[in-house]
Amino acid sequence: MTAAVLATFEAARAQLIGLAYRITGSRTEAEDIVQETCLKWLAADQAVIQVPRAWLMKVATRLSLDYLKSARVQRMSYIGPWLPEPFLANENTPEEELELDESISMALLVLLEQLSPAERASFILHDLFQYRFEEIADILDRSASACRKLASRARAKIGNQDLQPELTRDAHLQMLNAFTQAVKQGETAPLVSLLQDEATFVSDGGGKALAARKIVRGSALISRFFLKTVRPALLAAEDPDPEIVIKITWFNGAPGLIIYHAGQPVSALQFQVTHNKIQHIYVLRNPDKLRLFHTS
Questions:
Q1: What is the β-pairing status of strands 244-251 and 216-217?
Q2: Res. 242 pLDDT band, cuts 50 70 90
Q3: Which residues are in the RNA polymerase sigma factor 70 region 4 type domain (predicted)?
Q4: Could you tell me which residues come within 8 angstroms of residue 109 by beta carbon, excluding any fewer than 6 positions away?
């Protein structure tokens, strides 16, 4: 009996983590929530649970919302812009099989921060996990009509975000390489040409690492910033025995650049591309979030 009960939970684990992460924006917290869901599952009366996966999703959603309500208060006092913890790809997945996934992108998770907890849950369950509003109503303890309105308001607030990647995986990697080469080149014009005119640069240091306290806007300003602060690191990484190492790592459904200094991750960069140009640049600098990129 116990083996079968555990097997049922393990079959749902990946989906539960994905749900909890999208609601909370924290991979660490998502893992804790799923563990607590497991404990509740093991303690539950299995005989009265008709649809195990639905029961597990309901518990994980409610635990995630409990966390989010308290986290939103903490984020109001967060120093500088907030970005979610990185969600790294499964290390056992071959790189050539990785696919772009806008449903866990930094861009979407940042937009989801605009929503109330109930709006966020309704949107995620319906638009990302394809749950019917009748099912969501049971999870959120609201009417189906109310859940439909919550999801509709969510879409209006985030601008009907298109969850289909605009670029192919290879095209995204080519853009990443083109941007890196343009920064190394050291001239403003080639770099500006890769950016949308109203591009934004969001840097999350959390008061624990040097980072821009406000969102930087405009292709010219962003280009000057990268030439001044990032170019030296890119050039230093080309030394024969570099102290700085740069790796392409897959996280949040897309490839990104991780900068290591003396073996420690110090920056994680990722781009959102629209109309074949970079619209947003997200940079994680907070060491609490970068710890997930440690290689040893």
A1: unpaired
A2: confident
A3: 106-158
A4: 22, 25, 83, 84, 252
Contact at 8 Å (CB) between 102 and 158? no
Pairing of strands 264-274, 244-251: unpaired
Q: Which residue, 158, 178, 198, sits at the end of a domain?
A: 158
Closest CA to 168 of 233, 98, 226: 98
Residue 163 falls inside a structural domain: no
Last residue of one domain, picked from the residues 130, 158, 186: 158
Report pTM.
Answer: 0.93
Q: In this structure, are 21 and 83 located in the same domain?
A: yes
3-class DSSP assignment, residue 198: strand
pLDDT digits (tens, 9 = 90+) for 131-148: 999 999 999 999 999 999
Judge whether 202 lies within some domain. Answer: yes
Looking up residue 153, the CATH number of its domain turns out to be: 1.20.140.160
Sequence-ordered list of residues with C-beta below 8 angstroms from that of 98, at least 6 positions apart, any chain? 89, 169, 250, 255
Q: Which amino acid is at 176?
A: L
- Write down the pLDDT at residue 161: 64
Which residue range is the domain that position 235 belongs to? 169-293
Q: How many CB atoms lie within 10 A of CB 117?
A: 18
84: which DSSP letter?
P
Q: Which helix (H) or strand (E) holds 261?
A: strand 254-261
